[in-house]
Amino acid sequence: LSLYDATSQIAQEIAEKIQERNRYQRNGESSAKINVIIRSSLQNLRDKIDQLKDLLLRAVSTHQITQLEGDRRQNLVDDLLTRQKQLQASYKNEGPEPDVIRSSLMTGGIKRGVTNPWLLEESEETRGLGFDDLRQQQRRIIEEQDAGLDALSSIISRQKQMGQEIGNELDEQN
């Protein structure tokens, strides 16, 4: 799990470097040095993901972890693989402008009259926020959603109890 956290951190750093490189390109500055760092970081990320796969396979096959935990960790590794592929694609797309054809893949292809959500402007509430600020805002939203789900769960539990009591009363009356 610590290797997974370190690998996730590398992916985050790569995303930040790609964003920095794109900012340099928009300003007309040279981004060659950052490209070298990104390329080596991407290789490091690939190596770490391969290492995670091997460790996970070994842990599951020797029953060090349960199958359920193995599946959960496999999902985490799959998410990292997806993230790595996205970062690789972002790295190869060196232009600061979004690639319409590539981003249209996210919506299932080019369709007439359908706007691509990946090409929309950033909202005012997230504009100018850094990765940590966005992550904190996302956590706050998730906590609010969790609180709402907890309230909904208690309401449903109460309704279930009421339904059971009504059913018991009907059985008694019958």
TrEMBL record:
<feature type="coiled-coil region">
    <location>
        <begin position="35"/>
        <end position="62"/>
    </location>
</feature>
<protein>
    <submittedName>
        <fullName>Syntaxin-8</fullName>
    </submittedName>
</protein>
<feature type="domain" description="T-SNARE coiled-coil homology">
    <location>
        <begin position="139"/>
        <end position="174"/>
    </location>
</feature>
<keyword id="KW-0175">Coiled coil</keyword>
<dbReference type="InterPro" id="IPR000727">
    <property type="entry name" value="T_SNARE_dom"/>
</dbReference>
